[in-house]
Amino acid sequence: MTKMRIIVSGGGTGGHIYPAMALIKRLQERDMIEDVLYVGTEKGLESKIVKNAGIAFKTIEIQGFRRKLSLDNLKTVKLFLSSIHKSRKIIKEFKPDIVVGTGGYVSSAIVYAAHTMHIPTVIHEQNTIAGVTNKFLAKFVDKIAIAFTEAADQFNEKKKIVFTGNPRAQEVVNIQKNDRLTEFGLEPNKDTVMIFGGSRGAKPINQAAIATMSKFVESDYQVLFVTGRVHYDGVIKLIDDKYLNSANVSVLPYIDNMPEILPDIKLIVGRSGATSIAEITALGIPAIFIPSPYVTHDHQTKNALSVAKVNAAVMIPEKDLTSDSLFKEINQIMSDTDLQQEMSNNSKKIGVPDATDRLIKVLVDLVNK
To answer: Where is UDP-N-acetyl-alpha-D-glucosamine annotated to bind (predicted)?
Structure first.
């Protein structure tokens, strides 16, 4: 069994960090790590997540380019050059067998530095639309791992591309049904819809859900409405007490270890981030996606369309989201068990339950080579 010294880097958003953490976790489970180091930024979300997981963590200072001409871009170039210098020092000290980047500006320096030092490198692209960092790094790395087949069109380096899926898929695929819904005042055996706008919540999704409460309380299914912590107090004030006290509805700010409850959910309503899609398709859960129109290159819409085109999900553009459009789509799916089954089967067909092991094979092949 190959044991590796591995540097992993990815930052900025959970979409870059959680796949990296899933990769490390699986390598540990398979006893394939001699040593691991995570390189991030001190200010990034990765600082908290990686440190809490007890993984060795080093930082570099780096920032992204502004889209408009700005003096800040001169600082960006200076930081990039100094971060490469620091990255080379980190690499010399750690002596990795391979370096993996999962996106975000921080991964650009360490992966590029590894390339210049003739160390095997891999990048992982989670979205249908490749990020700026991965597009830059594609010219230099040995392999480009992708989670959506559509992402292949984003890179000119076709021979480097390997479809692996998103490591988060394998992390959740073995979770079994459980009774966690009882923690939220819901029945564990009743069909459940979860409405969730992401870790911070999404105001347009919350507004549509609030306006639909009177219909939810009379439905044959129950609704778990997760508002996001920053919106919770405001949402509660707008919902009539008789709806809040209904046995059919539970309103929460956030759920820790949310993947644990996914096997007990019949339908998910929410954003179409890459991590969410990886988890949903691995478990085969029908979905209604309301993509965020505010993300770079509108990649959430492209993500959602990739699932909707095989009839594993329905997409409602945010501009078309109303109480009526939301309830119509939810009710159509929840009142038709054959449709639920068809969507679930289609979702599983595009899910990648062995995504992390596929990515690990790419790493092993490069290290052995």
So the answer is: 13-15, 127, 199, 255, 300
pLDDT by residue, tens only, the chain of 369 residues: 579 999 999 988 888 999 999 999 999 999 999 999 999 988 878 888 999 999 999 998 765 544 454 555 455 566 777 788 899 999 999 999 999 999 988 899 999 999 999 999 999 999 999 988 899 999 999 999 999 999 999 999 999 999 999 999 999 998 888 889 999 999 999 999 999 998 778 999 999 999 999 999 999 999 999 999 999 999 999 999 999 889 999 999 999 888 899 999 999 999 999 999 999 999 999 999 999 998 878 899 999 999 999 999 999 999 999 999 999 999 999 999 999 999 999 999 999 999 999 999 999 999 998
Token pair of 343 as six digits:
């969507």
Q: Which residue has the tokens 């996106």?
A: 103
**Helix intervals (H) in the chain:** 14-29, 45-52, 72-94, 105-116, 132-137, 167-172, 203-211, 213-216, 232-238, 241-244, 274-283, 299-308, 323-334, 337-350, 355-368
Comparing CA positions, the residue from 11, 229, 242 lying closest to residue 108 is 11
Amino acid at 194: M
Annotated binding site: 13-15, 127, 199, 255, 300
Strand-pairing partners, residue 125, are: 146
Q: Which domains does the chain have, with CATH numbers?
A: 4-172+353-368 (3.40.50.2000), 180-350 (3.40.50.2000)
* Binding-site residues from annotation for UDP-N-acetyl-alpha-D-glucosamine: 13-15, 127, 199, 255, 300
Contact 181, 187 (CB under 8 A): yes
